[in-house]
Write a structure and sequence with these properties.
Strands 1, 2, 3, 4, 5, 6 and 7 form a seven-stranded mixed beta sheet that branches. By secondary structure, the chain is α+β, with helices and mostly antiparallel strands. The protein contains three helices and seven strands, in the order H-E-H-E-E-E-E-H-E-E.
Length: 173
């Protein structure tokens, strides 16, 4: 006699969940910002996307980092370390690149001496990183070494340096 009550209850419950989803209640934002677009091509002969170029230039010039409009909340305040001949600007991020957790993007900018690099720092505890990024760095290095237009010998590498697992490109001249 009252079979319709169960069906009506399911309908009301479904409508409520849909309404909450439409206004953004009940949905958690992703834990990590996808960096694949910004870092597109970086692993291939150190190509720099327009978004990465904007971020890098702003950091290197000591300006407020130009962050992606849809991901600013995933980045924390830049940390600057000043050495005698360069500045290291580290931008903490909760990001993902090729499905691996990234915890910082770092620019090293020389003090009028040609030092220039960009690196992606990975969160610790990801043992498969080397299997993915080691071969990419080797292929990228080989491509750059064979490039007749690479007159200043830009280089790339992947490894753990100063206790930080990273993929970097050195653009120093």
């Amino acid at each position: 006699m009252f079979e319709w009550i169960g069906e009506a209850g399911s309908f009301v419950k479904g409508a409520a969940v849909a309404a909450l989803g439409a206004v953004g209640i009940g949905e958690e934002p992703p834990a990590y910002y996808p960096l694949d677009g910004m870092l597109a091509g970086f692993e291939t002969a150190c190509a720099i996307s327009p978004d990465l170029e904007s971020l890098w230039a702003s950091m290197a010039h000591g300006e407020t980092p130009v962050l992606p409009a849809d991901g600013a909340e995933y980045f924390d305040a830049a940390e600057v370390r000043i050495a005698e001949d360069y500045r290291e600007i580290r931008l903490p991020v909760r990001g993902l690149w090729k499905d691996y957790a990234v915890n910082a993007l770092t620019v090293v900018a020389g003090n009028d001496n040609g030092i220039s690099s960009f690196s992606v720092h990975f969160a610790p505890g990801q043992p498969a990183l080397a299997a993915t990024f080691g071969p990419l760095a080797e292929a990228s290095s080989a491509a750059m070494a064979a490039d007749p237009d690479n007159l200043v010998a830009f280089t790339t590498d992947f490894g753990t340096f100063n206790g930080i697992t990273q993929y970097y490109c050195d653009f120093s001249t």
